[in-house]
Amino acid sequence: MTDKIAIIGFGNIANAIITPLLDKKYIQPENVFCVVNSKESLENIKKNYKYKINVYKSGSIESKIIWDCQYKLLSIKPQQFNEITEAHYIKNKDNLIVSILAGVSINRLTKKFPNHKCVRVVTNIPITIGQGLTGIAWGEGITKNQKQFTKKLFENTSRIYEFSEDYLDIFLALTSSGPAIISLIIEALSDGGLSGGLPKTLSEELVLEMIIGTTSLIKENKLSTSELKNLVTSPGGTTIAALRVLEKKSVRSALIESIISACNRSKEFR
């Protein structure tokens, strides 16, 4: 796949991206160069990570080796972005930065890393179980090989969408913030079951299985959400009584506004 790759930040998402590539031997452990921000992270990776990759603490002399790698995955927190400084001695103009930082624009990446071509990627937490959604926006001058490399990073663990950058903020809101919103809904519904007398663990299990079954039914039968709703809603029945409460409480509007708020927050990082 490539001789060397640098991983700047090694959280859950970076782990989920790199580990399958190592598992499939697309890259070799000795060719992975990882930089982390804390001594605790450094020791944890050295002790517990299944592969013996090269790992360094940020700011150390040894960590400068990352700038010799042609390909780099930038996976730090957006708030740490200003702490990164590109090495001044870079001469190879074919270097590539693949950034998964929420909200950080290609323009900002390009200014920060003038000796790199830049790709902006948004992915979500289900990538950690191989069921992620990944959106990619290409910077200027990206070569065919660089596009292939970038897609290879994500294709084993997620479904890939290629967008203009304008779509990435709303893509992030739906797919990356969405799991937390869904978790809140699951928690609330299971609390409803608890209120009705079910044990909490059973109630949550039922909610999870109901959601899996419902989404599968919609996908497999190619139903619209309105069609599904009409299938289970009868005049004067229990379902319409439940939906009426949600409409009175403006739950639909609150969910819409939550996505718009997440999208706007992502734009603030630009």
Q: Uncertain spans, ≥5 residues at pLDDT below 50?
A: none
What is the number of E strands?
A: 8
How helix-rich are the residues, as a percent range? Answer: 40-55%
Distance between the termini: 31 Å
Q: What is the annotated CATH architecture of the largest domain?
A: 3-Layer(aba) Sandwich
Q: Report Rg.
A: 22 Å
The whole-number mean of residue pLDDT values reads 93
- CATH T-level topology of the largest domain: Rossmann fold
Proportion of strand residues? 5-15%
SSE order, as H and E?
EHEHEEEHEEHEHHHHHH
Silhouette: elongated
CATH class identity of the largest domain? Alpha Beta
Strand order of the largest sheet: 3-2-1-4-5-6-7-8
Number of helices: 10
